[in-house]
Amino acid sequence: MLRSMYSGVSGMKGFQTKLDVIGNNIANVNTIGYKKSTINFQDLLSQNLSGSGVNPMQVGLGSMTAAINTIHTPGSSMTTGVGTDLSIMGDGFFVVQDPDNAANRFLTRAGNFVLNSTGQLVNPQGYQVVGTNGPITIDPQTYDSFTINGQGEVRAKTAAGAETVIANIGISNPPNPSGLSKVGGSLYEITNASGGSTAVQTVGNANTQLGTGMLEMSNVDLTEEFTEMIVAQRGFQANSRTITTSDEILQEVVNLKR
């Protein structure tokens, strides 16, 4: 009987975590480049009651969280018309680095980039966008204008009308994107589980292309999230009822002596 109470507690804890995951997904429904998370459960150890039968007689001891995975399916594209807004039409991530420490590199699907006062292409946090030859800089003293095409080429034009490719947007394709660690700001940190490398390649070599003047929105589906919320709520209620029922039965046992 006490086993049922502790099983109910483990189930309630699991569904609390599930609600935390769902709540975070819903909070980021409009976050650029956000990738939703899902949670999976697994059973705990089972207690052997007897080994005398043909089949083992076991009672489970509840459940626990098995994994919380990030789902890297593409989100829908939103047209902005801003030339420095980029979206990846396929797999891969943009690479950005800390301007104060070039060794700190991060990956992101959020392509809402801008030019800072020194002509560097940066994200909203001020991290430099990395190209195939390092951080991308468009010198405003040298070039009058620039464009970024679908192949990731940064093409700058001088006052005389001469156009040249001055940089290429870098794309990183980790072997296991689900192994990346979220660090906030729509950034991901490389881990050993993800492949342990931030190798940068051109858009063409990454077998993808860019959407210019577009941003990738969150891949959160509100219909799915609210459905999962109902399941989590009912699961939590059912586990709490298990605890309540076990308590009532224990009370009956205590009352036997009366």
From TrEMBL:
Keyword Ribonucleoprotein: no
GO terms classed as biological process: bacterial-type flagellum-dependent swarming motility
Entry GO terms, CC: bacterial-type flagellum basal body, rod; bacterial-type flagellum hook; cytosol
Main location: other
The UniProt record lists the keyword Transferase: no
Keywords: Bacterial flagellum, Cell projection, Cilium, Flagellum
Ranges of residues in domain Flagellar hook protein FlgE/F/G-like D1: 88-156
Domain Flagellar basal-body/hook protein C-terminal per the UniProt entry, residue ranges: 213-256
Sequence ranges assigned to domain Flagellar basal body rod protein N-terminal in this UniProt record: 5-35
Protein's cellular compartments: Bacterial flagellum basal body
PROSITE patterns the record matches: FLAGELLA_BB_ROD
Family of this protein: Belongs to the flagella basal body rod proteins family.
Protein name as catalogued: Flagellar basal-body rod protein FlgG
Source species of the chain: Planococcus massiliensis
